[in-house]
Design goal:
90 residues; two-stranded antiparallel ribbon; 3 helices
């Protein structure tokens, strides 16, 4: 059985799996997601997992992002600037 054309690339990871029918087949897995980055400055965000699809689905909400305003979207420094700017406007 030939896999879908998108899975035939060498960039996808391959695992040899032994099936119950005593056949060895290849399962294709996509690589890791790139690290989450700040929307303003582009720095890598800590505390945000690098899973995709079902991996993220299994995590609780508190483990998917940092527990503060704009958590998982802005780094602490950019958040501080945004909050100061917001206060200045009022």
């Amino acid at each position: 059985m030939v896999p879908e054309p998108r899975l035939r690339s060498r960039s996808s990871k391959r695992r040899k799996i032994r099936t119950p029918g005593d056949r060895t087949t290849i399962h294709y897995r996509s690589g890791k997601v790139e690290k989450a980055s700040c929307a303003v400055c582009g720095k890598v965000l800590h505390g945000v997992p690098r899973d995709r699809g079902s991996g993220l689905k299994r995590l609780s909400k508190s483990k998917k992002k940092v527990n503060r305003p704009y958590g998982g979207n802005l780094c602490p420094a950019c958040l501080k600037e945004a909050l100061v700017e917001k206060i200045r406007e009022t």
